[in-house]
Amino acid sequence: MKAVLEVEHLVTSFPGVGRGKTVRAVNDVSIVLHSGEIVGLVGESGCGKSTLGRSIVGLEKPESGRVIFDGVDLGSLSGNRLRAARRAVQYVFQDPYASLNDRQTVGEAIDEALIIVGVASKAERSARIGQLLDQVGLASAVRDRFTRELSGGQRQRVAIARSLAVEPRVLICDEPVSALDLSIRAQVMNLFLDLRDQLGVACLFIAHDLALVRQAATRVYVMYLGKIVEGGGSDEVYGRPSHPYTQMLLASVPEADPMIERRRKIPLIKGEIPSPTNPPSGCFFRTRCPLAVGECARIEPPTIFLTPTHRIACRFANEIAQKSLTDA
Amino acid sequence: MTAEPILIVKDLTIDLLTAHTAVRPVDSISYQLRRGETLAIVGESGSGKTVTCFAPLGLMPVGVKADVSGSVLFEGTELVGANEETLRSLRGKSIGFIFQDPMSALNPARRIGHQIAEVAELHLGITPRAAEARALDLIKMVGMSDPNARLKQYPHELSGGLRQRVMIAISIAAEPKLLVADEPTTALDVTVQAQILRLLKEIQARMDMAMVLITHDMGVVAGAADRVLVMYAGRQAEVGPTEKVLVAPRHPYTMGLIDAIPRRDDAIGSRFRGLSGLPPILGAPIKGCAFTPRCRHSVEGCGAQRPPLRTTADPAVMAACPVLNA
């Protein structure tokens, strides 16, 4: 499979306010996206997952590192060529109530995007709007409705149609269904699966809902305090989580079956995510880690590959993986 | 658990009147709650779960007039139609509240120690000094590290999880008999959610408190609630013991909701299960069963008459479904 988007050693920092220190929201992150693939990016709030997404599309300016689209480093481009590359990577925002203009009709909202791409004739644009609405599963009758008249799920579909108007190769979806009701979520999730299959779009799916990501994504990255701590196939990361943080995260998700949930041993988790202005020395997770030893405070954890695709930033990854095998 | 219910809600109906519109977010809700018991009220946005709990206590957004009918008996006191004074004496004292977003519920300009002590002083009638000591106890009780330093901090200095712990400390300051928790963990991360739910359970057991837990997360219901009430379009769809309703749901809406939860044995990359169609828009009361347009099992006649809540084949579970009832 060909990589459509590669992120290499990306660092994005925010200056501290007043005496505050600089926050490295994205700290040396490398990830890959292939065409026609949904890749999950999970982690707790404040871990930097949205900043990573925003840095990829240029909404934040990375301090160092590279974003490579279709083999070309975006940092080496400027002018029209940069704009064209940027256009191919679109962002879908979490809140469809904030991302659409209330005073536009659905047709106008999509038309705006088509004008920017330079679809010249009105007839062509109109045909394309009909096509896009069909693609996102909306009846063409909604074209003349104001976006404010639509439900959350419908609005998110319009937002997706707008991103698709520019024929992107990559969608960065930042919690695209977390503002939607449970009964509507499945409909929008299935739309992403369809877009992947029909258009071959690659999706970076940023979410905190681990169960949702497991089902939708073929690969997943787990982020903690600006760093990727574990990455691999969904079957690997969910089936054999080998970073203590991933294990903790997965064990915290409640089960909807009361028989399982009441017997479940909820892991005793120490504290909360530390302040990113002052991250711990060595391994960032060591302050909450049940396995931490003295060495973890001194040296950054090595990256261990359990398989060619399954990577973990923890010195104990092999032992953890072994143990989860014998436990299972 | 004592036999006598602490809260008896009967045929609660609420009409909300703004300058332009009239809607009925709560339509004939009935339930009971005993000490030490937790009832989860589950539903999607707009299903009326929050209004059900807050309107009878006089907690409504500004500019909205709530027309409340039916009966809400709390420890023998009728809340429907009660004057503001009666309601005020209950709020925060015998009935505690936790809201979804602790940041908007806390005063950003006051130290958290003050905010907790204030409630203790007001409702327990103790001296400011005693109230401060009480605040310190409460901070310890909700499991915050370095309690003395915490008292002097402002809400913005705390993480979301710690803020919610402060909210819990405030809500239990006057040792309420009933705690109403509206999506207490929705704004929190899963790891913190587990901690907060455990804390709520511990406190509930210690104080033998009844709890109404408003949530949309079936995982939270499974772990925390004894009974569950499923709401759809302001009405009760199904109500019964958690282990029965979540494992063998009977109402087609409950079935759909539970079926929509991704499961561990779902294949990676497989399609998501969900309900078709859209939830109804709040408006005038719906004539028949409100779920009819989305229901897989609907038959002719479902839309004609509103189904009453009836006992199902399992006497502990009640559901309002014309097909089940027939």
Mind explaining what this structure looks like?
The complex is a heterodimer of chains A (328) and B (326). By secondary structure, chain A is of the alpha/beta class. Chain A folds into 2 domains: 246 residues, Rossmann fold (3-Layer(aba) Sandwich); 66 residues, no CATH class. Chain A is built from 12 helices and 12 strands. The longest helix of chain A has 18 residues. In chain B, 31% of the residues lie in helices and 22% in strands. Chain B folds into 2 domains: 190 residues, P-loop containing nucleotide triphosphate hydrolases (Rossmann fold, 3-Layer(aba) Sandwich); 72 residues. The relative contact order of chain B is 0.14. The radius of gyration of chain B is 21 Å and the shape is globular. In chain B, strands 6-7-8-3-9-10-12-11 form an 8-stranded mixed sheet. Chain B is an alpha/beta fold. The mean pLDDT of chain B is 90. The interface between A and B is large, with 48 and 49 residues.
Query: What is the helix tally of chain B?
Result: 12
Low-confidence stretches of chain A: none
Question: Which descriptor suits the 3D outline of chain A?
Answer: globular
The quaternary organization reads as: heterodimer
CATH superfamily of the largest domain in chain A: P-loop containing nucleotide triphosphate hydrolases
The residue-averaged pLDDT of chain A reads 90
Largest sheet: number of strands, sense, barrel closure of chain B: 8 strands, mixed
Strand order of the largest sheet of chain B: 6-7-8-3-9-10-12-11
How do the strands of the widest beta sheet of chain A line up side by side?
Answer: 6-7-8-3-9-10-12-11
* Number of structural domains of chain A: 2
Report the average pLDDT across residues of chain B: 90
Rounded radius of gyration of chain A (Å): 21 Å
CATH class of the largest domain in chain B: Alpha Beta
CATH architecture classification of the largest domain in chain A: 3-Layer(aba) Sandwich
**How much is the radius of gyration of chain B in Å?**
21 Å
CATH topology of the largest domain in chain B: Rossmann fold
Strand content of chain B: 15-25%
Pfam families (chain A): ABC_tran (PF00005), oligo_HPY (PF08352)
Protein name (chain A): Peptide ABC transporter ATP-binding protein
Family (chain A): Belongs to the ABC transporter superfamily.
Domain ABC transporter (chain A): 5-250
